[in-house]
Amino acid sequence: MYLKILTSKTILDHKESLLELCDPLKKRPKDYWKSLKNSTYIIVAFKGEKLIGASRIVTDMYMCAMIFDVLVAPDYRGKGVGSGIMEKTVKFCREKQIKNVSLVTDPSHSWLPDFYRKSGFTVDNSRGTYMILGK
Ligand SMILES: CC(C)(COP(=O)(O)OP(=O)(O)OC[C@H]1O[C@@H](n2cnc3c(N)ncnc32)[C@H](O)[C@@H]1OP(=O)(O)O)[C@@H](O)C(=O)NCCC(=O)NCCS
């Protein structure tokens, strides 16, 4: 496996493969594409020519970065690909010295916090209350 850091311009060649990663029951492919196109960086994993996983970073390159849509193609899960993507994503944010790097886990899988703990994330309730604008 190898990993690459792409931008909204350099993902165009990989549009179809990226959209295949997205579970259409969770997110419409056109919405995922809109998110990808407007992300600051997209980390992608390849096995040979095949794109097998990705994550997205949205960041101001100084104070904060949010990581979204850590996705591995179903046939390649449980083989360390997700961990590899997270390692690269975290390394990149650390190299850029971004102060606060965060993510929100999908509540449908109780093991996801442990997955992210392995990449150095912790649950932090000390910075105030997480709030979201209502519909
Ligand atoms: C979450 C996801 C990216 C993990 O990728 P992956 O390549 O399967 O993960 P890895 O093989 O690197 O696993 C790393 C660790 O995560 C945990 N883990 C991964 N899959 C797991 C599962 N199905 N059940 C329990 N723990 C699991 C294990 O602790 C594993 O460590 P181990 O190999 O030492 O046991 C992948 O399952 C996925 O794409 N899921 C669907 C999308 C999703 O839910 N994304 C997260 C949104 S917050």
**Distinct small-molecule ligands in the complex:** coenzyme A
Average pLDDT metric: 97
What is the name of the CATH superfamily? Gcn5-related N-acetyltransferase (GNAT)
What amount of the residues lies in strands?
25-35%
Rg computed from alpha carbons, rounded to a whole number of angstroms:
15 Å
Structural shape: globular
Low-confidence stretches: none
Q: How far is the N terminus from the C terminus? A: 41 Å
Overall number of strands: 5
- CATH architecture term: 3-Layer(aba) Sandwich
Which structural category do the helix and sheet elements fall into? alpha+beta
**Strands in their spatial order, largest beta sheet:** 1-2-3-4-5
Largest sheet properties = 5 strands, mixed
Q: In the residues, how many domains can be counted?
A: 1
List the helices and strands in order: EHHEEEHEH
CATH topology: Aminopeptidase
Helix content: 25-40%
**Name of the CATH class:** Alpha Beta
Number of helices: 4
